[in-house]
Design brief:
single chain; alpha/beta; Rossmann fold; six-stranded mixed β-sheet; 9 helices; P-loop_NTPase; ATP-binding; Heme ABC transporter
């Protein structure tokens, strides 16, 4: 379980996070939604320890800030938004970075890298420099780097960004499967229908504050969408999936 207790993060003109409090159970895919500047990325950075926030962040009642580097690496992985490695490395090298803090044999490291690469349809790029990849291909490599350590807590900032629709769905299904294996997966996502279809719970943020947390149907009300996004939306839900028809107020 992840406990977020009164977490705040300073900003230039206003707090990026303001007294956010949540309790999130393992075994769930959690979608962070909200307009630009809502605090989605800031919350993920605070949990990952990339930025120091006030308040308490507990993983199974243990303070994340009190963990040493090895403990943190064995607990969580963080995929940043639009990360662009500057090194001229192969995709295998980049994925293997996710195992730096793991005490594994060379054969086990290789097995994990190969398996994770196959899972994200990256095998065709074996041996390729990351400098030769498109943004969408690099996005999948960075997700593989976060997944390869098999973390208990997986934090992904817009993991479907720059991906075509096939790979978007593949990634969402993969993250869903990760949660079904008992992990807590949190992702910032802008596609509201995809968030509604794949996530067990949604966290709606606006201007650094928590607006609502619950199942998609509890969060994506016309009132919440109007207040945070400034839109009116009609929902279409059937066995084939979820869609919506948004329009400005």
């Amino acid at each position: 379980m992840l406990t977020i207790d009164n977490v705040s993060l300073k900003g230039i003109n206003r707090p990026r996070l303001s007294n956010v409090g949540l309790s999130l159970d393992s075994g769930k895919l959690i979608g962070l939604i909200g307009p630009n500047g809502a605090g989605k990325s800031s919350l993920l950075k605070a949990i990952a320890g990339v930025e120091a926030a006030s308040g308490k962040l507990l993983w199974n009642r243990q303070s994340l800030s009190a963990m040493n580097d090895n403990e943190r690496a064995n607990t969580l992985s963080y995929m940043a938004q639009d990360d662009t490695p500057q090194w001229d490395l192969t995709i295998e090298d980049i994925i293997d970075i996710g195992l730096l803090k793991k005490r594994l044999s060379r054969s086990e490291r290789q097995r994990r890298v190969e398996t994770t690469s196959e899972t994200l349809n990256l095998s065709e790029f074996t041996g390729h420099s990351i400098q030769r990849l498109s943004r969408g291909e690099l996005q999948r490599v960075l997700l593989a780097r976060a997944l390869v350590s098999e973390p208990e807590l997986l934090l992904c900032d817009e993991p479907t960004n720059a991906l075509d629709i096939y790979h978007q769905l593949n990634v969402l299904q993969l993250l869903k499967k990760q949660s079904e294996q008992g992990r807590l997966v949190m992702m910032a996502i802008h596609d509201i229908p995809q968030a509604a279809e794949y996530c067990d719970e949604l966290v709606l943020l606006d201007k650094g504050r928590l607006v609502c947390h619950g199942q998609p149907f509890e969060v994506l009300t016309k009132e919440n969408l109007a207040a945070t996004f400034g839109i009116h939306a009609d929902w279409i839900c059937n066995k084939r999936g979820v869609a919506w028809q948004p329009r400005p107020l």
